[in-house]
Amino acid sequence: MHALTLLGLLPVALGCLNSKTNPCASFIKSNAAQALPFCATFTQSQVTATTGLPAWATNCSNKLKLLTAECACHYPGGGNPPATTTTTLTTIRTTKTTTRTAGSNPNPTGVTTTLPQSSGAVATNAAIVVPVSLDGGMKLYDRSPRVCAEQDETGEDDAMFILEDGATLSNVIIGPNQAEGVHCKGQCTLINVWWQDVCEDALTIKQNSGTSYVIGGGAFKASDKIFQFNGFGTLDIKNFYAEEYGKVVRSCGNCSNNGGARHVVMDNVLARDGGVLCGINTNYGDTCTISNSCQDSNKTCDKYDGNNSGKEPKKNGSGPDSQFCKVSGFSTSC
Ligand SMILES: *[C@@H]1O[C@H](CO)[C@@H](O)[C@H](O)[C@H]1NC(C)=O
Ligand SMILES: *[C@@H]1O[C@H](CO)[C@@H](O)[C@H](O)[C@H]1NC(C)=O
Ligand SMILES: *[C@@H]1O[C@H](CO)[C@@H](O)[C@H](O)[C@H]1NC(C)=O
Ligand SMILES: *[C@@H]1O[C@H](CO)[C@@H](O)[C@H](O)[C@H]1NC(C)=O
Ligand SMILES: CC(=O)N[C@H]1CO[C@H](CO)[C@@H](O)[C@@H]1O
């Protein structure tokens, strides 16, 4: 087979085809999980036909020109960073990681406190559904056009990623133009996921039961909550960094499904310039268990009297106790 080469940055010669009738446009538009990682690298780098096109490229008759055009139509920006985030890619970052000094307070250790440098950027005009797993290779994922409307509650459609029950998302940086970060429809695992600038919230947990995990990663500039816990069961967070935020986790205070307990477990979490680590509804038996963590203004838990009628829940105390807000190994010097 001849090695065909194509420069992805060629101007797009073809128009966008109708995704209702054209199989190439239809596939690329509606199968973001497969099309997007391909489009991101395909439009960016030299592609040789001998490296093999994905099976679904048959929908595009394996035509490179057509693939390029349709990638550009549905994932504008392709592998190129949107103009607003270019600075992120060119800024030289010094990665800071916390270390524990002998004899000091039980501060978290090994937590990275700077946004990692991205390895490229991907922009999509719809949320990316993750059925099983997605490893983003530290690319910056964002929505284009922008859907973030600050604290106006939007919905799952305005998320960056929608994880199906059991799915894992790893090694991604989520940009400022999306609105709802990650939505987990069931139990999910997030590994090394970073939010550059949280819009409505960073993660919404909807599982009915079981445990979801957040391992590593961090979130910046959440004017309200980082993790919104609307389902039930346990949210287990470790080695996580939060900076400038309202609350790290909040059990839904007034969701219509309220009635059961939610449990939050935090270990080795470092939180600066924000509010409590946990907002829990003690009347429903919620718990928050914190260990080896730091919050620089001594804010561990706010306890609420939650409801299922949509009313603003009343606050009923704050701080550690032996029943709802269990704290061990906690420091305020970070
Ligand atoms: C596109 O390709 C996939 C995988 O090869 C195939 O299952 C699917 O039916 C094709 N879709 C269309 C719209 O032709
Ligand atoms: C209560 O419900 C209102 C309206 O749905 C919402 O704006 C608010 O954030 C909720 N409060 C809490 C603490 O969940
Ligand atoms: C408020 O907290 C106290 C102490 O934990 C508890 O005894 C009381 O039942 C709570 N009140 C409501 C309305 O939940
Ligand atoms: C933090 O708050 C707790 C009570 O919630 C208090 O016992 C403790 O002394 C406070 N620590 C600091 C460093 O202010
Ligand atoms: C269970 C329940 O409805 N709890 C409270 C919800 O919030 C309202 C208003 O603050 C309270 O009156 C309820 O007792």
Automatic annotation (TrEMBL):
What is the top-level taxon of the source organism?
A: Eukaryota
Which stretches are tagged as biased composition: Polar residues? Answer: 102-117
One Pfam family, please name it: Pectate_lyase
**Which major enzyme category is it?**
lyase
Identify the stretch(es) annotated as Disordered.
97-117
**Is Secreted one of the keywords?**
yes
One GO CC term, this protein: extracellular region
Annotated GO MF terms = pectate lyase activity
Keywords from the UniProt entry: Calcium, Lyase, Secreted, Signal
Q: Which cofactor does it need?
A: Ca(2+)
Q: What is its EC number?
A: 4.2.2.2
> Principal place where this protein is found?
secreted
Q: Subcellular localization, per the record?
A: Secreted
Its UniProt entry gives the catalysed reaction(s) as: Eliminative cleavage of (1->4)-alpha-D-galacturonan to give oligosaccharides with 4-deoxy-alpha-D-galact-4-enuronosyl groups at their non-reducing ends
Which InterPro entries does the UniProt entry name for this protein? Pectate_lyase_PlyH/PlyE-like, Pectin_lyas_fold, Pectin_lyase_fold/virulence
Name a single GO biological process. pectin catabolic process
Known function: Pectinolytic enzyme consist of four classes of enzymes: pectin lyase, polygalacturonase, pectin methylesterase and rhamnogalacturonase. Among pectinolytic enzymes, pectin lyase is the most important in depolymerization of pectin, since it cleaves internal glycosidic bonds of highly methylated pectins. Favors pectate, the anion, over pectin, the methyl ester.
PANTHER family for the chain? PECTATE LYASE F-RELATED
The record's comment on protein family reads: Belongs to the polysaccharide lyase 3 family.
Name it: Pectate lyase
- Per the UniProt record, the source organism is Emericellopsis cladophorae
